[in-house]
Input
Amino acid sequence: MQTKPHFFASHHFDRMAHRRDQDTWLEQRRNSGTSWFLPVAASKNLVFEGPPPTAALLTLGEVDMLSCPQVYLGEYKERSCFALLTEADHAAGWPGTVFQQVLRVATIIDTAEASLLAYARAMSIWHRNHRHCGRCGASTVSTQAGHVLVCSNPDCIWQQFPRVDPAIIVLVSDGERCLLGRQATWDAGRYSTLAGFVEPGESLEDAVIREVHEESGIVVRSPVYHSSQPWPFPSSLMLGFQASAASSEIHLRDGELEDAGWFTPDDLAGGTLIRLAPSVSISRRLVDDWYLAQTGRKLEAQDAPPKAW
Output
């Protein structure tokens, strides 16, 4: 089982949820001069271009957009952090900065900063997708430091909270090989562990068995929980499992995968036969742990060099 926290986990900072309804305290922190502000334009975060790139953690004197919606993220390095939710077409107005997808820089940015950026991004997308009440259609009003959206219709006042979508992801093994698949839209040669969303009225174990069988035709038994990873792209929680195969013949049944196959440890080494998921993902952690258990060795990193800015 994994012991090192997953990438994008929030152990780097304190969310301070008990402060979200304390408007006076929040206003004091906002105007303190020591707080940090993280601009987000739709799904893109503001970063300093580097090299290497770093999160744009701006102080009060560096921002001129405090009238835009804000979300209190919590405390990081003894400073309060607020996401500034700007419009999607907002141009970066700070020297040396650019709005960038956090996944593009995830492998080269500070891990704590990456967690903050991903959190801010997820909250930005949630706000953009819930501007109106799902019951009556009236506009929503942000409360609880940006963590609750309340219907503005006094006859409704329905409250909406940020949600996460649970998804299972599983390393299936027949003892000597592991099962990996690829989608047609992925980069050439990219393979990953199988995954899918949990459906209503379904246990995690049931979801593992169903998803693997739907996508590959493989019957699995004894799903065992491994670990979980926040994957806020936009709002998933990946629940990792290991499972044993009870069959071996692959049938691509639901059209989700372009290809699937069984791979030995030798097939995975070197990254020449196939390319694995990036090191920041739980998929890669599942493969790494299986490879280590099979060989007693660590699997070499396969992350591609960052693209030029």
Observations:
- Confidence is low (pLDDT under 50) at residues 305-309.
